[in-house]
Design a protein that fits this description.
Elements lengths: L25 E3 L5 E2 L20 H4 L1 E4 L2 H12 L3 E6 L14 H22 E11 L4 H12 L4 E8 L14 E8 L2 H7 L7 H4 L13 E6 L1 E2 L10 E2 L5 E2 L6 E2 L3 H9 L3 E2 L9 E5 L12 E2 L1 H4 L2 H12 L12 H11 L5 E4 L6 H8 L3 E6 L3 H14 L18 E7 L4 E3 L5 E3 L5 H12 L2 E2 L10 E2 L4 E5 L3 E2 L1 H11 L4 E6 L1 E2 L9 E5 L25 H17 L1
Parallel strand pairs: 3-17, 3-18, 4-5, 4-16, 6-15, 16-17, 23-25, 24-26, 25-27
Antiparallel strand pairs: 1-18, 2-18, 5-7, 6-7, 8-14, 9-12, 10-11, 13-14, 19-20, 21-22, 22-23
Helix pairs in contact: 2-3, 3-4, 10-11, 11-12
Keywords: Methyltransferase, S-adenosyl-L-methionine, Transferase
Family: Belongs to the N(4)/N(6)-methyltransferase family.
Catalytic activity: a 2'-deoxyadenosine in DNA + S-adenosyl-L-methionine = an N(6)-methyl-2'-deoxyadenosine in DNA + S-adenosyl-L-homocysteine + H(+)
């Protein structure tokens, strides 16, 4: 009898509906971009590439705009390059969906999360990981959703973070923790690259050197006797004092005779100051692996709390700006980034909030990308990062990582939609787009890398070493096409996107001609700027009935 494996999955209203996202381009706001003064470039060396040129200023991105559109916009350039994703998404406590009942609210939240998680997975490197903070409102549903998106085998752990060490007496049960779900892109690869935590003071205190051993501090390894064992673990040992000892009846040595003799030969056995105590086999601190394996319990005493982040850091750093109600402490992000990355790696946070992820990643010598839709992107995160870059932020983890300042970032806005409807309801090229914007946007839509040539007017980008693209809002006549074809030559091909063209019945073997906007009209949803919480997950009435009928039939067949 064979048992058919069934895939368990989470079902909710509108699960099968996915938005057809427009891959927007970015526009830099140079008035908000920021770079350290020349005399304060301490961090630049951390980001030096093969050409030894500073990379920090250009690689760090603060993006203002809808985070789903931003993730889509990042996909072409950053797919497979993000080493660590940290997100602190809305916890769906009810405040985000005040106009919907609980069932629809829950469905909207799951749809909102699912499509973002799928894009985040695409951006993650093969040895990358994602860390998601959440509370009890959606934690268990999110776990099942993450199993679907990342694969259950790639689940690493659920970490319990003590966000509040205090006790609230005005509630039934005082909530003191959040969850952090940890998934890897590929668990087998991630386990090889994850970093250990440094030894803390408590761990180091266990190592002493009472006999001035030149090999340094040590602690008890195998020592004394135990109640369980076998006859092979009962043998005589002669102490340096001359006394001969054996375990009492019913007891056994904790180490084999061969292990003891090997340790004795290596002068690794301690018999007490007078040489008359039961033997202890030494374990030197130098032999311990380079740190501690992380545990799933992260107390606020080690990783900070919401309250400490507000009171001890953000209020002091930006006293004139009201801090967030529940900011994540820098110590929490420092631990995550330390475990998941190394200097120079890329960290991404698409729910930037108060900007803690970027601030900590910056101080730790990592490259970073943050996305934030709200006004705090300009009015809170930018001032905070400027203080980090100028070395004025000495709170949080600054002293622990010896942060002195340096680096920079670019402030990017999502460009408006490439297509807009005119007064008659026809899709036309958005008048806000100039020629350069148009060329970059079309490269993205057609799968080309935007890299305009300084010498060839027809070369705006490439898809391979011999395949190029040319974008123009003008119409091309036969003579123009003939000239371009001759310049391209027989060893290369060129995709031309233009308003109109006239070939006079002649085919050019090295040219492919496409009219805009017709070439991209059906590629995505146009002129949709906000996917934050407005995702329409409810299907039309007939479609919903048909879906139910199909599901019922499928269940009966199984």
């Amino acid at each position: 009898m064979s048992i058919k494996k069934q895939k368990l999955e989470l079902i909710w209203i509108g699960k099968d509906k996915r938005p057809r996202l427009e891959p927007r381009i970015f526009l830099e706001d140079k008035s908000l971009s920021y770079q350290a003064a020349p005399e304060n470039q301490a961090a630049e060396a951390l980001f030096a590439g093969d050409d030894q040129q500073p990379k920090a200023f250009h690689d760090n991105l603060l993006i203002h705009g809808d985070n789903l559109l931003a993730l889509k916009a990042l996909e072409q350039q950053y797919a497979g390059k993000v080493k660590c994703v940290f997100i602190d998404p809305p916890y769906n406590t009810g405040s985000a969906f005040t106009h919907y009942d609980d069932g629809l609210e829950h469905s909207m939240w799951l749809s909102m999360m699912r499509v973002r998680l799928e894009l985040l997975r695409t951006l993650m490197s093969d040895d990358g990981s994602i860390w998601i903070t959440i509370d009890d409102n959606e934690a268990h549903y999110l776990k099942v959703l993450c199993d679907e998106v990342f694969g259950r085998s790639n689940f690493i752990s659920t970490i319990i973070w003590e966000k509040d060490a205090g006790r609230k007496n005005d509630t039934t049960i005082s909530t003191s923790h959040d969850y952090i779900f940890l998934y890897a892109k590929a668990s087998s690869g991630w386990k090889k690259v994850r970093n250990l935590l440094p030894h803390g003071e408590e761990q180091l205190k266990r190592y002493k050197n009472p006999d001035n051993d030149p090999r340094g501090p040590w602690r008890q390894g195998a020592d004394g006797t135990a109640k369980s064992g076998n006859d092979a673990l009962r043998y005589e040992i002669t102490l340096p004092s001359g006394r001969v000892v054996t375990p009492p009846s019913g007891n056994f040595w904790r180490f084999s005779k061969s292990t003891f003799e090997q340790a004795l030969q290596e002068d690794r056995v301690y018999f007490g100051k007078k040489g008359d105590s039961l033997p202890v086999i030494k374990k030197y601190i130098s032999e311990v692996q380079g740190g501690m394996v992380p545990k799933t319990w992260w107390p606020s005493s080690e990783t900070g709390s919401n309250q400490s982040a507000r009171r001890d850091h953000l209020r002091k750093l930006l006293p004139d700006i009201e801090p967030f109600s529940t900011p994540k402490p820098e110590q929490l992000l420092e631990r995550i980034i330390h475990i998941a990355t190394n200097p120079g790696d890329l960290v991404l946070d698409s729910f930037a909030g108060s900007g803690t992820t970027g601030a900590v990643a910056h101080k730790m010598g990592r490259r970073w990308i943050m996305v934030e839709l709200g006004e705090q992107s300009e009015h809170y995160i930018v001032p905070r990062l400027k203080k980090v870059i100028d070395g004025e932020d000495q709170g949080g983890v600054s002293k622990a990582v010896n942060w002195q300042g340096g680096g920079g970032f670019r402030y990017l806005n999502l460009a408006p939609s490439l297509l807009k409807k005119d007064a008659w309801g026809n899709w036309i090229i958005n008048k806000e787009y100039n020629g350069e914007m148009m060329a970059e946007a079309m490269c993205k839509h057609m799968g080309f890398t935007y890299a305009p040539s300084q010498t060839q007017f027809w070369n705006h980008g490439y898809s391979t070493e011999t395949d190029y693209i040319y974008v123009t809002t003008g119409s091309l006549a036969y003579d123009q096409l003939k000239r371009i074809s001759e310049e391209v030559g027989s060893e290369r091909t060129l995709l031309i996107c233009c308003k109109a063209f006239m070939t006079d019945g002649v085919e050019f073997a090295n040219l492919t001609l496409q009219k805009i906007p017709r070439a991209i009209l059906n590629k995505c949803e146009w002129d949709h700027d906000d996917y934050s919480f407005t995702l329409n997950v409810l299907p039309e009435e007939p479609a919903e009935q048909e879906t139910v009928e199909q599901a019922t039939t499928s269940a009966e067949e199984e």
